[in-house]
Automatic annotation (TrEMBL):
This is AlgX/AlgJ SGNH hydrolase-like domain-containing protein. The chain crosses the membrane at residues 21-46. It comes from hydrothermal vent metagenome. Gene3D superfamilies: SGNH hydrolase. Keywords: Membrane, Transmembrane, Transmembrane helix.
Length: 387
């Protein structure tokens, strides 16, 4: 091995002044950034400038020993993030998303409606007042009707039933009607995601994609796998300015992503893809119907009315799947069991093109409704549920 002499090193730096200056600037920037982060940590005020969406979302979520997972109680003005879109989250004393951290009495002199569903109903990326549940709550005040939102991401019929049962029998919450928004992803969660344990508590059984449930201890096969830290994560944890640059990069990617990223979603395509229907769609519908019947029987004993609502993902709109397996199955189930049925698929039939409809009502590159989509759902439900 030949060791370069000092003259050779000097000649290289002298002959590459731009590279030398760039190296010095970058190295100096890193030293300053690391030093600033270290100083802030010493005084106890350092916070990573970039935090992934799943970490920020998991903050206000919790595992539950009875119905698997839910939202933490009494969260005030927490800034959550979904798809690089910041939004405010508040929860009430029941652990329901609400328009503020407020106490909810177990009994009310007004009529009460409970809405429950998954992330669509919870209102991912949307502050409560702009979600359909928040709009209903505000609108129904004039009729002396209270609206409570018991939804959380990745719920499905097994949890709809178990959580409502818990609210009635353990919490002692009084209400008059339940509106269940059954999601397309519920089929996979029912078939592959959840099951009851011997005490009729909901536990995971494998592939449930429940947000924040990584914290859950209620799994049939718990896995504690520590993920290795990536280079990006290392610089995020130990620098300040580089984390801000990562924030900017992620924000720009989210703003420029294609609307088509919301298409070809496995959890929705089972209504059109025979292989997915055979894998989990048919089984999920069957199991979901059983759990919904348990919910119906529970509510009948309490003289509480039940309404079932279904709605499309972008895939159904794009592929003109409005006479969907989802619609037909739950329409027939509701008719058989004398349950009110609301079909929101019809509310999203394109008046121009499928692309324009998806862009109008859904978060760009995502499957969830934007504020306009929530307003559209509100308009239909307001008419159908109005006292």
């Amino acid at each position: 091995m030949t060791i370069p002499n000092i003259t050779e090193q000097k000649n290289w730096f002298e002959s590459n002044p731009k590279k030398t200056i760039a190296f010095i600037v970058i190295f100096g920037f890193l030293i300053i950034d690391f030093s600033l982060a270290a100083a802030l940590k010493i005084v106890g005020v350092f916070k990573p400038s970039y935090v992934t969406s799943n970490v920020r979302e998991a903050y206000y979520r919790r595992a539950d020993p009875v119905y698997h997972h839910g939202l933490k109680k009494n969260i005030s003005n927490y800034i959550a993030e979904w798809g690089k879109q910041d939004y405010r989250v508040d929860t009430n004393s029941l652990g329901f998303k609400d328009n503020g951290n407020q106490h909810v009495p177990l009994e009310s002199k007004h009529k009460r409606i409970i809405v429950i569903g998954d992330s669509f109903t919870e209102g991912m990326a949307i502050p409560f007042d702009k979600t359909f549940a928040g709009l209903l709550k505000n609108n129904f005040k004039q009729y002396n009707v209270d609206v409570l939102n018991a939804a959380a991401s990745s719920y499905s019929p097994i949890i709809y039933y178990r959580k409502i049962k818990y609210l009635i029998e353990t919490v002692g919450l009084k209400f008059d009607s339940v509106v269940v928004l059954i999601d397309l992803s519920d089929a996979e969660d029912e078939a592959l995601g959840y099951r009851f344990d011997k005490d009729e508590n909901v536990i995971s059984q494998g592939s449930a994609a429940n947000l924040g449930a990584a914290e859950s201890k209620h799994s049939a096969k718990p896995k504690n796998i520590k993920q290795p830290m990536t280079v990006k994560d290392f610089f995020t944890q130990y620098t300040y300015f580089l984390g801000q640059l990562r924030n900017l990069s992620a924000y720009l990617k989210a703003k420029t992503r294609s609307w088509e990223r919301g298409l070809k979603q496995r959890r929705a395509m089972w209504t059109m893809d025979k292989s997915l229907y055979n894998e989990f769609g048919e089984k999920g519908l069957t199991i979901g119907a059983k759990h919904m019947l348990q919910l119906k029987n529970l509510l009948d004993k309490q003289q509480i009315s039940l309404t079932v609502v279904v709605y499309p993902w972008p895939d159904q709109i794009y592929n003109d799947d409005f006479e969907s397996k989802q619609v037909n199955f739950w329409y027939n189930w509701s008719r058989k069991n004398k349950v009110e049925f609301i079909n929101l698929f019809n509310a999203f039939v394109p008046t121009t093109t499928a692309e324009e409809t998806i862009r109008k009502y859904y978060i760009n590159g995502d499957v969830h409704w934007n504020e306009v989509g929530h307003k559209r759902v509100f308009q239909v439900l307001k008419t159908r549920l109005q006292p």
